[in-house]
């Protein structure tokens, strides 16, 4: 008799805990529904396929599918003639792949003349000196075998030159 009672108590306890967990999850779901929906929301077209326009499209690398480059600058504030080192990591680019440092000039990306290569461990470092005062917006871009700018570019970094 005690064996059956013990089993019954366990089943009752398990059922109670399950109900408590479900109700807590349900309360959280209702609380989440009280918040305004995020914008933008996908819209449905007449063909019933989702239509979302991404603001940033992933770039494909001819080497290994999806590729990316991350970039940091040290220091981010420099004096004219001071060396600034741009370093980062790549993903999906082969070791030895060429890279070029570019800056935004009159709305166009222009090569600064500083180049580098992807090292073992997918890291790189490129340094340059700026000869004019002002704010420089800089990025790293991959190069194709023919020396043209490739499809993979880094995030932009701002360096203030005084």
Please give the alpha-carbon distance between the first and last residues.
88 Å
Number of helices: 1
Q: Give the strand tally.
A: 13
Coarse shape: elongated
- Unreliable stretches (pLDDT < 50, length at least 5) are 47-64
Rg, Å, rounded: 27 Å
| Whole-number mean pLDDT | 77
Assign a percent range to the helix content. Answer: 10-25%
Strand content: 35-45%
- What summary fits the major beta sheet? 6 strands, mixed
Could you give the order of the helices and strands? HEEEEEEEEEEEEE
Secondary-structure content class: alpha+beta
Structure summary:
The protein is α+β, with helices and mostly antiparallel strands and 162 residues long. It is 20% helix and 44% strand. Mean pLDDT is 77; it is low at 47-64.
Q: Could you walk me through the main structural features you see in this protein, from its secondary elements to its overall organization?
A:
The chain has 162 residues and is of the alpha+beta class. Helix content is 20%, strand content 44%. The protein contains one helix and 13 strands, in the order αβββββββββββββ. The model is unreliable at 47-64 (pLDDT under 50).
